[in-house]
Specification:
about 55% helix; 6 helices; two-stranded antiparallel ribbon
Length: about 200
């Protein structure tokens, strides 16, 4: 049995190493081409087209970072991801959200807005990539499951009457990122199953 487990683990490692190469190769080509389009050396693209190319490049870079994380064998075998804590500018986060989701929402006929509350610090100490990944997941679901109406994002202090599953959250110093949509929603009995883990 021990030999079978060891062999299965080796097959998994080999598969992930090969898949890592297979995924990175076309993605690197996509990034190079998107960068060339965004640079617009021939001057024949509109500002909107260059913005689209920059969005493709930024999204591809995010995907590459995610692939690097998922396929890093040492992280997978250890069963943990390392956090990279650094300052994250909140205005830049708003721009990131708008750049990645404004066009997608509008193409579906949805109103889309991002609100940054007053009185917040310019930046917070966090793992930028993880925050962006979580926000992207919530917004992808919001766009997917909202047929009509609107999607809004609000970055603010927690509401005074908000309830959290982790008691160390403090309304006066912490920041919440809320995604609200007019989609089908999630039944209350399924919420713990989806979110707690």
């Amino acid at each position: 049995m021990g030999k079978e487990v060891e062999l299965a683990s080796q097959y998994k490692s080999d598969f992930l190493a090969n898949m890592s190469h297979e995924l990175r190769t076309p993605l690197n080509s996509l990034l190079i081409l998107a960068k060339l389009l965004a640079d617009n050396k021939e001057g024949n693209l509109t500002d909107k087209q260059r913005e689209f190319a920059r969005t493709i490049h930024a999204s591809g870079t995010d995907l590459l970072e995610l692939i690097n994380d998922v396929l890093d064998l040492s992280k997978i075998e250890a069963g943990k991801m390392l956090l990279h804590i650094e300052p994250m500018n909140l205005t830049e986060l708003v721009a990131y959200i708008q750049r990645n989701f404004q066009h997608v929402a509008e193409a579906k006929g949805l109103r889309f807005s991002v609100h940054l509350a007053e009185g917040l610090p310019d930046s917070i100490e966090t793992d930028r990539q993880r925050v962006e990944q979580i926000v992207k997941n919530f917004l992808s679901n919001a766009v997917k499951f909202t047929q009509t109406g609107s999607i809004s994002v609000r970055i603010a202090r927690p509401a005074a009457d908000a309830e959290f599953s982790h008691s160390q959250i403090q309304a006066e110093s912490d920041i919440t990122i809320s995604v609200t949509d007019t989609g089908i929603g999630i039944p209350e009995e399924k919420q713990a199953l989806i979110f707690e883990a």
